[in-house]
Amino acid sequence: MGGASVSARNEVRIEFPSLPENVGLARVAVAAFAGQVDFTIGELEEIKVAVSEAVTNCVVHAYNGTPGVVRVTARREGRTLELVIEDSGRGIGDVAQARQPAWSSDPERMGLGFVFMESFMDGLEVESRPGKGTRVRMWKSPASAGAAEAAGAAEGDGAPGSGRADGG
Ligand SMILES: Nc1ncnc2c1ncn2[C@@H]1O[C@H](COP(=O)(O)OP(=O)(O)O)[C@@H](O)[C@H]1O
Ligand SMILES: [Mg+2]
Fold first, then answer.
1. Is the C-beta atom of 85 inside 6 A of ligand 1?
2. 61 Cβ below 6 A of ligand 1
3. Which domain covers residue 67, as residue numbers?
4. Could you tell which of 51, 92, 94 is best to mutate to test the pocket of ligand 1, judged by most ligand atoms within 8 Å of the CB?
5. For the chain, what is the mean pLDDT?
6. What total of structural domains would you count in the chain?
7. CATH at residue 27
8. How far apart are alpha carbons 58 and 89 in whole angstroms?
9. 39-94 pLDDT, tens per residue?
10. Residues belonging to the active site
11. N or C: which end of the chain has fewer CB within 10 A?
12. Cβ density class 3-19: b for 16+ within 10 Å, e for less
């Protein structure tokens, strides 16, 4: 049944060809999904930048200009948003190097995509297999989630419906 409350978990997945015009689509779809969590406008902007950078990488780097598939999964677990962006492209030989600020395999680019993803989200994991593809996982909770938990712990007042025994 419906009702005012938001269910504890949700997940959506979209798949699309690696075309530049689909970056905006992924960005809007993820922002709409992220709206199920009480992120601030600023936090939603950060999420949109992070997803744009990840999807742009699939479009410009993964497939060397040939058509390929990009898959974006958005998952919500309570107030935590998790995003997984995957491609089946050429992969990254040295992930640690690729994540360095200002490192790019393309002299025309700034090499800041992973830096933005890392700084705008709470966490970032990059897994890649050369010749097989790349999987970027990132997650974020509202900054207010930590604040509310701290306040709740101090006042002994649990957030409605949180049902958490340990605040974890
Ligand atoms: N999905 C991907 N497939 C293949 N290579 C990638 C992918 N994402 C990132 N890379 C590699 O990692 C490097 C760094 O990515 P990024 O920080 O976004 O900088 P930029 O895109 O500006 O080069 C890219 O230059 C590219 O070599
Ligand atoms: Mg990039």
1. no
2. yes
3. 10-153
4. 92
5. 90
6. 1
7. 3.30.565.10
8. 8
9. 999 999 999 999 999 999 999 999 987 889 999 999 999 999 999 999 999 999 99
10. 53, 57, 109
11. N
12. eeeeeeeeeeeeebebe
